[in-house]
């Protein structure tokens, strides 16, 4: 992402990322990087974002647009509560505008204050049939997501894209985006009008990327079956919780000769931003939210030969995996 012309944007994004108020309300930094890359690739003239918070995702879309040299983003938020972004409690619109200024993105980003469905009339002249990329990350309730979809989707151009955030309720705790996706599938809108890719993300919340392949005007209503699903989810919360808890990786470090667990061994995963963990008395570390992938880890502990780049193959179909690493004593 190094670009001398936009390095100040990277710096501004880093500053926002490090604020305690930023996450988890702002999207995870890895996910935001996907938005940057997608924008670079899709080259949209108009991005519409519903749900800005303080503008973390907004800055990523805008960063890409600035580098492309064209395109703008309209970001809508109710901005109806305050945060402390290091200067005491402030309205979030002021925070977002300060960062926009710092990043010199005033010509790229337009903030609109108000409830998404209410401000539509105010901006419809600018967006009608013009949205190349629509990002829905506002009110995550079933009612809210359906309202946002119904209000803005028909202005997405044929061939344009829609991103939904927070699609895995067991991890993110909200239902709306999942219910919308299920309903789009059940009604046949996916795949006939919209192509869909669901993507697991490092925080487990997930994103869906949808491409508009049909030009039918769509108004979708929420099927009542989701209420039954909700009741089922609540009833099975304990079971679900067990599933969530067990969707984990355990790395167990043992002495190759005695087979005894080794406590105090360090387990480092450079692929996960140098995630660094230390084994407990049982020789184990418990690792959460591992997206299926092959991970290389380094294990180091006093009195044993270092083990570098040990492969952990985290498989998609397994919710729990244990990796036993045998350490060879020195000398
Ligand atoms: C999860 S945050 C958005 C995070 C942001 N997209 C990011 O990743 O940096 C959700 C935001 O949606 C806003 N919001 C919720 N319901 C809304 C609505 N109906 N209209 C406008 N904004 C709404 C909230 O004020 C909040 O700032």
Notable traits:
331 residues; Rossmann fold; Immunoglobulin-like; 2 domains; seven-stranded mixed beta sheet; 11 helices; binds S-adenosylmethionine
Describe this structure in words.
It contains 11 helices and 16 strands. The chain has 2 domains: 7-235, 3-Layer(aba) Sandwich (Rossmann fold), CATH 3.40.50; 247-327, Immunoglobulin-like (Sandwich). It has helices spanning 7-17, 29-42, 56-68, 92-102, 116-127, 142-152, 169-172, 176-186, 189-192, 225-235, 237-246, and strands spanning 46-50, 72-77, 82-84, 89-91, 109-113, 131-136, 156-165, 194-199, 207-212, 248-255, 266-269, 275-278, 284-287, 293-300, 307-314, 320-327. The chain is α/β, with parallel strands linked by helices and 331 residues long. The strands form 4 sheets. Strands 5-2-1-6-7-9-8 form a 7-stranded mixed beta sheet, sandwiched between helices. A hairpin with a 5-residue loop joins β11 and β12 (275-278). The chain starts with 6 loop residues before the first helix and ends with a strand. The model is unreliable at 240-246 (pLDDT under 50). Residues 25-27, 51-53, 56-57, 76-78, 115-116, 137-139, 144 line the site of S-adenosylmethionine.
List the ligand species. S-adenosylmethionine
Number of strands: 16
SSE order, one letter for each helix or strand: HHEHEEEHEHEHEHHHEEHHEEEEEEE
Unreliable runs: 240-246
| Helix/sheet category | alpha/beta
Work out the helix count: 11
Task: Give, in spatial order, the strands making up the sheet with the most strands.
Answer: 5-2-1-6-7-9-8
Shape: globular
Whole-number tally of structural domains: 2
Distance between the amino and carboxyl termini: 46 Å
Q: State mean pLDDT (0 to 100 scale).
A: 91
Specify the CATH architecture of the largest domain. 3-Layer(aba) Sandwich
């Amino acid at each position: 992402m190094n670009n001398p012309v936009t390095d100040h944007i990277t710096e501004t994004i880093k500053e926002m990322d490090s604020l305690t108020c930023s996450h988890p309300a702002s999207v995870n930094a890895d996910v935001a990087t996907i938005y940057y890359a997608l924008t670079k690739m899709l080259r949209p003239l108009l991005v519409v974002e519903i749900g800005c918070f303080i503008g973390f995702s907004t800055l990523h879309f805008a960063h890409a647009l600035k580098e492309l040299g064209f395109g703008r983003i309209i970001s809508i938020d109710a901005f109806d509560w305050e945060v402390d972004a290091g200067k005491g409690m402030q309205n979030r619109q002021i925070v977002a505008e300060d960062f926009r200024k710092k990043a010199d993105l005033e010509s790229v980003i337009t903030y609109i204050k108000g409830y998404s469905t209410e401000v539509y009339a105010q901006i419809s002249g600018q967006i009608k049939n013009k949205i190349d990329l629509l990002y829905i990350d506002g009110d995550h309730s079933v009612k809210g997501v359906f309202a946002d979809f119904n209000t803005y989707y028909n202005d997405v151009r044929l061939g344009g894209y829609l991103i939904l955030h927070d699609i895995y309720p067991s991890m993110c705790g909200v239902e709306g985006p999942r219910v919308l996706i299920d309903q789009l599938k059940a009604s046949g809108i996916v795949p006939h009008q919209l192509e869909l890719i669901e993507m697991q993300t490092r925080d487990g919340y997930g994103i869906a990327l949808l491409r508009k392949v049909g030009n039918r005007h769509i108004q979708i209503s929420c099927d009542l079956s989701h209420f039954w699903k909700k009741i089922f989810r609540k009833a099975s919360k304990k079971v679900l919780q067990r599933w969530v808890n067990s969707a984990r990786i355990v790395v167990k470090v043992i002495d190759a000769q005695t087979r005894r667990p080794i406590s105090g061994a360090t387990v480092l995963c450079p692929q996960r931003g140098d995630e660094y963990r230390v084994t407990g008395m049982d020789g184990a570390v418990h690792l959460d939210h591992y997206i299926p992938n092959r991970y290389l880890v380094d294990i180091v502990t006093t009195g044993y030969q270092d083990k570098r780049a040990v492969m952990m193959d985290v498989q998609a179909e397994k919710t729990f995996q244990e990796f036993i690493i045998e350490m060879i004593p020195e000398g």
